[in-house]
Amino acid sequence: MLQDAKKGTELDYVLANKNPLFQKPVYLELWGSPLFGIRQKFISPETAEGTIFLLGQLDFEKQAMYHLTVLANDAYAEPGQDTRNIAGLEVVVIVEDVQDVPPVFTVAPPVTRLPAGLIPGDKVLQVHAEDGDKGVPREIRYGLVSEGNPFTSFFDINETSGEISLLRPLDDILALTHAGDPVLLTVIAEEVKVSRDEPPAMATTVQLAFFLPERSNSPPYFENDHYVARLEENAAPGTVLAFTDPYTPRVMDDDAGKNGVFSLTLLGN
């Protein structure tokens, strides 16, 4: 029986004859699972028909097989040779899986710290997903979700193995991020549909966070290696020195955060 069978679906039927020594008819019962029931009707004064039907929703991933027992009370027995007043019949129900569960990630570290020596082509980590349907599992293909994510182009993922590698230098990523902020990637795992008659392929995603290595604390630097300014002889205190081309009185620091804070001091004044 398919796991997506509807409530009320009939599975099979059994026939039981009454004991000729008793006036009362044969009575059928079903034991083994609350998901199945039996509907009885008399097709003759001596014979009862019991139809086994579904009472609830099946789930292959929870249980793929059911052992049921049909009991016939006051069933036929050979007069004078068999004194039993009950007979049993074993029924085994096999649940057939259908494609209704998306892939499940079994390996997907939520947080990863990237080492400082990582270069393009190096492996960052590897994810793994499996088809959530265990009956006839499909193969899985991996990809990176690029929509709305500027960092997808900095990484690559092997579509069959799930291995994620660095595609561009870390410095390129550092230039676009603030110190301490993680780089977020979304990985998609999608089932592979092999025939036109199969149900649609299902997919699932997981988000990964990469923390970049700490930036080196580089020194600040001047726009020019020396500066020249002219000042009149009788200039008053507080007169501002004016630096003209080609001199630019500007100091820069490529570090972010507290490493990018600096102060200026006059030496030999």
Task: Describe the protein's architecture and organization.
The chain has one helix spanning about 170-175, and strands at about 10-15, 25-30, 35-40, 45-55, 65-75, 85-95, 105, 110-115, 125, 130, 140-145, 155, 165, 185-190, 205-210, 220, 250. It has about 270 residues and is an all-beta fold. A hairpin with a 4-residue loop joins strand 3 and strand 4 (about 45-55). It has a 4-stranded mixed beta sheet, with no helix packed on it. Strands 1-4-3 form a 3-stranded antiparallel beta sheet, with no helix packed on it. It has a 3-stranded antiparallel beta sheet with strand order 2-5-6, with no helix packed on it. The N and C termini lie far apart (about 95 Å). It folds into 3 domains: about 10-95, Cadherins (Immunoglobulin-like, Sandwich), CATH 2.60.40; about 105-210, Immunoglobulin-like, CATH 2.60.40; about 220-269, no CATH class. The chain contains 1 helix and 17 strands.
